[in-house]
Amino acid sequence: MADPSPATAAVIEAELRFLDPAVQGSPARLAALLHPEFLSFGSSGRCWNRETLVAELRARGPAGPPPTVSRLDAVELADGVVHVTFDVEAGGRRAHRSSVWRHTGGEWLLYFHQGTAFTPGEVPPQG
User: Fold this and answer.
1) Element at 95 (helix H, strand E)
2) d(CA 125, CA 127)
3) Which of 6, 34, 47, 80 is deepest in the core (most CB within 10 A)?
4) Whether the predicted pLDDT of 2 surpasses 70
5) Is 15:101 a contact under the CB 8 Å cutoff?
């Protein structure tokens, strides 16, 4: 990734906060990162909105160790919209991740997130 713009740098920081086990384990901290219209398609095939994701992570209890993040890239698609792609490994599972962040009310909020499970041999070249 080239030198990040202020928008992409802020979103990368927010994305890494979103993945932080301390944030995942705190409904208030997690909810503060999620857009009111948040939607996620998990690598498990499940679908979440803002309320169901916060409730799910609350029910899971304390989060495990932080995931390993690689191939992180961010692109500003339009003013106030940033797309992030990366790979993550946690608990022996790997997933390609894609997030769309929107600048809303002076904050970068996670608007859409998707994970797709993969095996190591299925990693496409980074373009």
Assistant:
1) strand 93-104
2) 6
3) 34
4) no
5) yes
